Amino acid sequence: MKKIKLSALDLATVCKGQTVQQAIERSVAGAQYIESLGYERMWLAEHHNMEHIASSATAVLIGHIAGHTDKLRIGSGGIMLPNHSPLVIAEQFGTLESIYPGRIDLGLGRAPGTDQVTAMALRRNNLNTSFYFKEDVNTLLHYFENDDPSEKVRAFPGEGLDIPLYILGSSTDSAHLAAELGLPYAFAAHFAPAMLAQAADIYRREFKASKYLEKPYFITCVNVIGADSTIEAKYLSTSLFNMFAGILTNHRRPLSPPTEKVIYDGIAEIERAVHQMVSCTFVGDEDTIATSLSNFIKEYDVDEIMTTNYIFDSEKRLDSFRITKDALLPWL
């Protein structure tokens, strides 16, 4: 049995009745707790124009959480690079790495992390930036690795720092790019599992060894709802399923308390859509999670499981992180 790493993704999700400040405090508490459990990293995701997600200023939040932890790696899952100048990202993450040396990750995505109107506002009406993702990734790498003092544009802080880059994806496009550049690859199976198998196969089959990696490194993000009993876990999971139903029907709500039945119960079209969107969701007690996640790791040859859990109750959310870790102990 190979050894894997265990980590977490966080969006600073605002719960019903909560303020943004409380959502961020909850993210900090989660980071501190998973650090005590021995998790590898926590990543924060860039989203915009979403009232109930507080991670839009991703680099700022990474710095805040890094400042409240000691050894946990903190990074982006991801920075949506077409929204930004590569130079600005090099400077931001160079600053973070200078403050928290050896603890900062830079995960990069191509999608806008928002709707098209907001993307236009972010990109100042230039939606073509997504077509230059590969070039922007290479530019970013160059800013960190530059050793030519005659370069006209240089990143300070940033230049000369060892900041690991990861390519993120929810389709096969980024799998090709991560393989071509020889970079680690993280797949968003927690909300877009349809192309997981294809993307994993493309990445491993096309991977070219580089100065960054000798062999492929594949991270898969999944939803895990763990509890003391499977009955309780299924009950807690309704918060997640109801949230995704709101996304699909464009009725976004804060993360809400669990319900006896999902709010779309009996509406077949929504049931199918939610199931497809969150099919990589593992719900149950420790034994159930252990069996299902072990099978998943074997099937997709995963090197690192990144878990997210949309559990309303903060203590039960932390319990789920613990149960997930205990379920995967043979792999860790």
Brief characterization of the structure:
With 332 residues, the chain is an alpha/beta fold. The chain has helices at 20-37, 58-67, 86-99, 116-122, 133-145, 173-181, 196-206, 230-248, 268-277, 286-300, 314-327; strands at 5-10, 41-44, 73-80, 104-109, 165-169, 185-187, 218-226, 281-284, 304-308. Strands 1-2-3-4-5-6-7-9 form an 8-stranded parallel barrel, surrounded by 9 helices.
Uncertain parts:
none
Gyration radius over CA: 19 Å
What is the average per-residue confidence, as pLDDT, rounded to a whole number?
96
Shape: globular
Q: Write out the strand line-up for the largest beta sheet, numbering strands in chain order.
A: 1-2-3-4-5-6-7-9
**Terminal-residue CA separation:** 10 Å
β-strand number: 9
Structural class: alpha/beta
* Biggest sheet details: 8 strands, parallel, barrel
The proportion of residues in beta strands is: 15-25%
How many helices?
11
Amount of helix: 40-55%
Order of helices and strands: EHEHEHEHHEHEHEHHEHEH
Describe this protein's structure.
The protein has helices at residues 20-37, 58-67, 86-99, 116-122, 133-145, 173-181, 196-206, 230-248, 268-277, 286-300, 314-327, and strands at residues 5-10, 41-44, 73-80, 104-109, 165-169, 185-187, 218-226, 281-284, 304-308. It is built from eleven helices and nine strands. The model has no long low-confidence stretch (mean pLDDT 96). Helix 10 (286-300) crosses helix 11 (314-327). By secondary structure, it is of the alpha/beta class.
